[in-house]
Amino acid sequence: GNSVTQMEGPVTLSEEAFLTINCTYTATGYPSLFWYVQYPGEGLQLLLKATKADDKGSNKGFEATYRKETTSFHLEKGSVQVSDSAVYFCALSDSSTGNQFYFGTGTSLTVIP
Amino acid sequence: NAGVTQTPKFQVLKTGQSMTLQCAQDMNHNSMYWYRQDPGMGLRLIYYSASEGTTDKGEVPNGYNVSRLNKREFSLRLESAAPSQTSVYFCASFQGQAYYGYTFGSGTRLTVV
Fold first, then answer.
1. Tell me: the pLDDT tens digits for A39-65?
2. Closest to B104 (Cβ–Cβ): which among A44, A99, A104?
3. How are beta strands A11-14 and A107-112 bridged, if at all?
């Protein structure tokens, strides 16, 4: 079946630190992979995506590379800011299951000045 | 602004009361979804509607019913609320191509006492 596993949180970093949030997946077909971000009190917003192996998604300084050989889609940012404090969700969509989305449990990030 | 609109934003119910959560999208998307978000459990799919006139159960449908009123609107009903249904509920819509991801509403925070 399809599933997404994210690293446990919460994560606390100092401003300008390097961020990695690990995400691995299992899928029956050829999934598209996504990172969503949820700011306090808001809904989920699409942060970045990749639709095939070796694609790199990027947005707002965040990057993630679709690694089929390791079934991973780790989120990285070189220098985090206080405004990046949020909950981050890794997700996949598999066309073999009608494009239904599967979400990880979310990783809470707090960036301190 | 185009997007997904959920009402109400907050609600407190007594055990046994009923209520309907409303969701509307103005992006002409075919598919719509209801998720619940609980601490440490990420997002769990309650029901979805792949197209107007169809609805299907997700991972946690018990205690809920849905209606796809038309292409724009997808409502979630709690017939007899229970404390276990205290959660944040998100509606999402989907264009049909995985590349675009889901678009989420801002959520309804429901407390059942």
1. 988 889 999 999 999 999 999 999 999
2. A44
3. parallel
Number of H helices, E strands in chain B: 0, 11
Single-letter amino acid code for the residue at A61: G
The dihedral region occupied by B69, where left means phi > 0, alpha psi between -120 and 50, and beta the remainder, is alpha
Give chain A positions within 8 Å (CB) of B99.
32, 49, 51
Say how far apart CA A33 and CA A49 lie, in whole Å: 6
Contacts of A51 in chain B (CB under 8 A): 98-99
How many angstroms separate the CA of residue B48 from the nearest CA in chain A?
Answer: 9
Cα A33 from chain centre: 8
Q: In the structure encoding, which two tokens stand for residue B23, read together?
A: 């969701």
pLDDT digits over B6-30, tens only? Answer: 999 999 999 999 999 999 999 999 9
Assign residue B10 a region: left if phi > 0, alpha if psi is -120 to 50, beta otherwise? Answer: beta
Distance of CA A90 to the CA centre of its chain: 4
Residues 6+ apart with CB under 8 A from A22: A6, A7, A72, A74
Chain A residue numbers with beta carbons less than 8 Å from the beta carbon of B98 are 31-32, 51, 93, 95, 99
In this predicted structure, the answer to whether residue A98 has a pLDDT above a threshold of 70 is no
Q: In this predicted structure, what is the pLDDT of residue A8? A: 81
Q: CA-nearest residue of chain A to B107?
A: A43
Collect all residues with Cβ–Cβ distance below 8 Å to A44 and sequence separation of at least 6.
A36, A37, A38, A89, B43, B90, B92, B102, B104
